[in-house]
Design brief:
Elements lengths: L2 H13 L7 H24 L8 H19 L3 H25 L4 H21 L1 H4 L24 H23 L2 H11 L1 H6 L4 H27 L4 H4 L2 H14 L6 H19 L7 H16 L3 H14 L8
Helix pairs in contact: 2-7, 2-10, 2-12, 2-13, 3-4, 3-5, 3-10, 4-10, 8-10, 12-13, 12-14, 12-15
Amino acid sequence: MTWFPKFAALALLAAVPFLELPDYYMHVLILILIWGFVYTGWSLMGRFGLVSLGHGAFLGIGGYTVVLLWNYYGVTPWLGIPVALVLAGIVALIVGYPCFQFRIVGHYFALVTLALAEVVRLLIIAMRDHTGGSLGLTPERYGDGMSVYAFQFVEKDYFYGIVLVSWIFGIWVWNRVEGSMARYSMEAISDDEDASAALGINVTWEKVKITLYSSALTAFGGALYGQYQMYVNPDTISGISVSLQIVFASIVGGMYVALGPTVGAAITILLTESLRVMVGVELAGLDGTIYGLMLILFIIFMPRGIVGTVWSRSAESLNVPKDSPS
């Protein structure tokens, strides 16, 4: 009967458009699902010790590629999104392959990816004639704003359905990796690369493969975010701050459990919205300060995150293996 809670949760999420919730609540739910999808993509790498601080680069590539192709060449987002995924994969391969080939790991790998995020942000700003620079870019409206061809939906219910299906797909990918031999290979590699290579594991290829999965999912999340907000900005969809936000939320929620990153997304978004309502702009950056303090506390006291810690304790009480998929 372990399937019943999952089925009930999916049924509840699917029923949301029929509950006639206010637009603001629908907006928050859509953001949680989009960012939960993005954080799930990052956790594919993070859970195996590949701590990337540059996923803001892939997020920006996904969002901007789709908008630029639409605005300047009239390419529908349905074709622009695959182009964005391929472009993100190429960038991930260019940066990741040399790192993995030359054994650049740990904080050195984190610094390389951090630089990547900033390079992409500065490139977007430098190409201001096309990207709008630091002011951002808005996709051109198609008709009345309700178009499947242009991937534009004024009604939030439509976009909620698309985002929900995408989020389910992200969870499915996470579980596919969890149940595959790639998981055991990556766990062995994270423990000892030399021993893994001696056992016949292609260390470089396994790392590249999981990086490509992660970058593609993140770029797809960036495309979804840009199309939903109908606006992309280098500071909100790329760069160091976004990359750190991704890492923070995934760690807080729990990157070792499928739903952990989504819980992290719910916590960060609800915290941001609550502070915005209660404090306004009087204490700008307060949410970032709170994120930093929470991250320190979670790394020290709950390294497996909220969902991971709850799952581990439940597994101990029920004598269930802790590494069972959830």
